[in-house]
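Sanity check. The docking grid for oxidized coenzyme A depends on where the pocket ends up, so I'm generating a full predicted complex first rather than guessing from homology. Inputs follow.
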Amino acid sequence: MSKEIRPIHVPDIGDYKNVPVIEIMVQVGDAVAAEQSLLTLETDKATMDVPAPFAGVVKEIKVKVGDAISTGSLIMMMESSAAAAALAPASQPPQSTAPAAPQTPTQPATVLASAASKVAAPLSLGEHFTGKAHASPSNRKFARELGVDLSRVKGSGIKGRVTKSDVQNFVKAALSQPQGAGGMLGGISVLAMPVINFAKFGEIETKPLSRIKKISGANLHRNWVTIPHITQHDEADITEMEIFRKKLNEEYAAQGIKITPLAFILKAVVTTMQLFPDFNASLDASGENLILKKYFHIGVAVDTPDGLMVPVVRDVEQKGIAQLAKELAELSAKARDKKLPATEMQGGCFSISSLGGIGGTAFTPIINAPEVAILGVSKASMKPVYIDSAFVPRLMLPLSLSYDHRVIDGASAARFTTHLAQVLTDVRRFAL
Ligand code: CAO
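Predicted complex below; grid placement will be based on this.
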């Protein structure tokens, strides 16, 4: 098969002159297919790719990034086979090409794009092009084929343009991340947060986030985005429990132990978990097996001046209410004094977040992965409850159980909170 070295010129780009070359997509020695993009030009209105008019091998590149070129400029020398040349006419200076489709100066990209069948397909549903990413039509197409949202790719080209290798590097980086550890999150792509200069609207002050907030924020974000959360709300009648708690407090005051409702809630949660083992479990790394735990270590969210910390109370099933109250006080004091070692925040099976000392009627706590459920507790209040044909005042404790719906069904969650409420209503059930 005879081979021939032939010139490639810029085809008709309408009235545009001295258009800068912003990207060269091939190198000397590259074998290119007919219609493959060779380089990208940028006018003040749009970008356009110059396609190869025939298949062949790039022998010489006559332009470089930044050069200004016009219709007919020589850009490359390509070696073609006779067969390839016979199939596609060689690129000619514009005067010898077939007339281009009618064009308007506001649509220059269509000239070359249609000549090369390179018109970018409309964005499909699910793509979120913000219009902020700048890339050539061919790189947009390349990104679309790989399902990459260009607005999330940092461009390394001229004026921040996204090049083909930027898209490739973005995909490589996403694939090299552990499953579920961020990046593309199984295909979820989100719009970038807008960068706003708030000072335009009034006086501001910038305060850096604490280290704890940065660490817990990243974990909360991952858990919120990757775990299908549902929150089951319920109420427990703790009227009798409160009478008992106050009595215990009088007895233990001399020992310096203060018993809050939380010690009872810890015990009631573990009593309930013993009946519903799926709540004391974690998904394994493959996501195909449930690891059931035979120990009962419960994390308790503590509000500290620097942010949220979650110390873990160990072996709750083996401890009495007074002991749990003492440990809770010690752990929360350590957390607030920044004396909590990492080991005392590890190994939790389930978490409790109590805002009962502050207020509120319900909230939706975020699961502390790899745990599969968390109990939110709000402030108890006196309410009229209809018992034996009459409304009677009872102290009602709001419970909000968030659970991982991959592991726990709604019916199990409702059974869990119903049982938990029964145990809190009659704490003699701790003994069962
Ligand atoms: N309903 C009504 N009163 C309640 C209550 C409830 N559910 N829970 C606690 N109280 C009362 C206590 O009895 C105590 O009353 P007295 O001072 O009159 O005896 C008062 O509220 C303060 O309790 P506390 O908050 O000091 O103690 P605690 O054992 O209930 O909680 C701790 C300890 C560490 C969990 C808590 O101090 C804390 O940090 N809570 C915030 C947790 C948080 O930020 N969660 C949100 C995380 S994001 O999901």
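Relevant for the grid: The pocket of oxidized coenzyme A is lined by residues 260-262, 300-303, 308, 328, 332, 353-357, 365, 377, 379-380, 397 (CB under 6 Å).
Also worth noting: The chain has nine helices and 19 strands.
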